[in-house]
Design brief:
Blueprint: H1 2-8, H2 24-35, E1 38-47, H3 53-73, E2 76-81, E3 87-92, H4 96-112, E4 119-127, E5 133-139, E6 144-148, H5 160-170
Helix pairs in contact: 2-5, 3-4
């Protein structure tokens, strides 16, 4: 069937490589050295809510599992919904390695239970010297990262120049999304 898919122009989406998340602690060191950005101690997993009751049970299991693991790591976990109707599992932990481990656990738990099509992105927050927030976004369906920098002063504007600077600093650190049209703005991220 591969040749039929090729003939019809169909392609399979790239399978997410969740182990790429473990490159974030190294990227955090690079961002601090090259851009003066420090981890905000927060990250979140964004997913589309599903209508099946099994999905709600899975989310409850994950929340309980994270509460138990939070006792070991010191991670605080909460769940919220944004104004666009997407669900977020928000993780707070000052230790970047623990933060990444918890985010990886959320993603892999949902994927293992058959909900990988619901997963959209994982977002890691960083702070600039002036307090502005910069995000490193992992696109689940692409298996790549990109920077998202809301422009200072509020509103739905981006600082594209800063995003490109961060991209340059992160080359070789994480798998970067080469198609700039896929660098989607994510407004209303529930992390600082």
């Amino acid at each position: 069937m591969k040749w039929v898919d090729t003939l019809l122009g169909r392609t399979k989406p790239t399978k997410a490589n969740l182990d790429a998340l473990f490159a974030v602690p190294g990227a955090a060191i690079t961002l601090e050295a090259a851009q003066g950005l420090t981890s905000a101690g927060a990250a979140a997993v964004c997913f589309k809510p599903a209508t099946v009751s099994d999905f709600a049970a899975t989310c409850n299991e994950i929340t309980e599992l994270l509460a138990l693991s939070g006792k070991d790591t010191g991670s605080a976990v909460s769940q919220s919904e944004d104004s666009y109707g997407y669900d977020w599992i928000v993780v707070h932990d000052e230790d970047v390695s623990d933060l990444v481990t918890t985010v990886h656990m959320v993603n892999s738990s949902l994927a293992e239970r058959g909900f990988e099509n619901q997963l959209l992105a994982s977002v890691f927050a960083f702070r600039a010297g002036g307090g502005d927030v910069v995000y490193l976004v992992y696109l689940f369906k692409r298996g790549t990262f990109y920077p998202f920098v809301p422009a200072p002063g509020g509103g739905e504007r981006r600082d594209n120049q800063k995003e490109l600077q961060i991209q340059g600093a992160l080359k070789g650190e994480v798998p970067l999304e080469a198609d700039l049209s896929r660098w989607f703005p994510i407004w209303g991220i529930p992390v600082p």
